[in-house]
């Protein structure tokens, strides 16, 4: 029996699994592969150098899949201010009807997307921000636990408590993000009240992911102890792979009076992009969640989704029968 939820019905997808925005990874090939496999693929707007390039990326993805896919717009500090409005307009004009928003002050974007009849999935890391986005009219919340790759916020609440709090407080459906890479995670998220899951790191390590094979193998070889937080002192915390550059950044941050300018060149996204292109895991900063400790293969997106659903169903079945047996 397929796992059907409010999410699969709302988005018209087969599996309740979303591939969240990922800088340099959420390209048309990635998003189309996830959508074609039955999940929701998402193109990351800022990975494209301009709104016109985003238009081209959307057209490219359409050639690869006729299934729904979305666009991510993340509003966080950047080295060069992007034309967020231009990206948003371009995506709507290209017919995108599903958006993932994330980051600071998403209000105007949520309002714009809703005025255009779009579905908005807003990703956030606290229940208070989730409730505020709910009041703004978003359709789904993507609740990002402390386990996540990239920016976990500053409250440090792990997924187990965060999802349970979301289930108690929210009126609209939410999906669980951060720490999910397999059917066990999907089953756990649904048990906590989620209508599905969001995954990033797990999709980075698939056949169709555009990153260098060495980085996929590095993820497979890693444990849950192989990530680190940078930017804590600048209140823009980011979980990244624990490599030489990340450790150097943290050491600089620890010096009294450290400023963002002191690490700016080390952390540039363009430098991180080279990691994915060249396969050198130490070249720059690259995002990774602690799910690196759960990932031990490089499947196709389709095989991954089929396997996750099967595992989740088996686990839910085992839990139910254990409960029944305990009652007898
Ligand atoms: P970038 O080169 O502009 O910046 C590199 C890193 O430094 C980013 O993590 C950024 O948040 C941080 N940063 C920049 N200016 C800062 C400041 N003044 N204070 C503190 N931190 C600062 O980043 P990029 O790789 O070109 O990515 C563009 C944007 O997309 C960034 O905001 C990044 O955080 C965000 N992002 C989005 C996703 C996504 O899923 N859509 C994933 C990762 C990062």
Automatic annotation (TrEMBL):
Coiled-coil stretches noted in the UniProt entry, renumbered to this chain: none
Pfam families per record: NMO
Parts of the chain that traverse the membrane: none
Organism of derivation: Dendrothele bispora (strain CBS 962.96)
Keywords noted in UniProt: Dioxygenase, Flavoprotein, FMN, Oxidoreductase
Protein name: 2-nitropropane dioxygenase
SUPFAM superfamilies in the cross-refs: Inosine monophosphate dehydrogenase (IMPDH)
Family matches, as InterPro entries: Aldolase_TIM, NMO
Superkingdom assignment: Eukaryota
Molecular function per GO: dioxygenase activity; nitronate monooxygenase activity
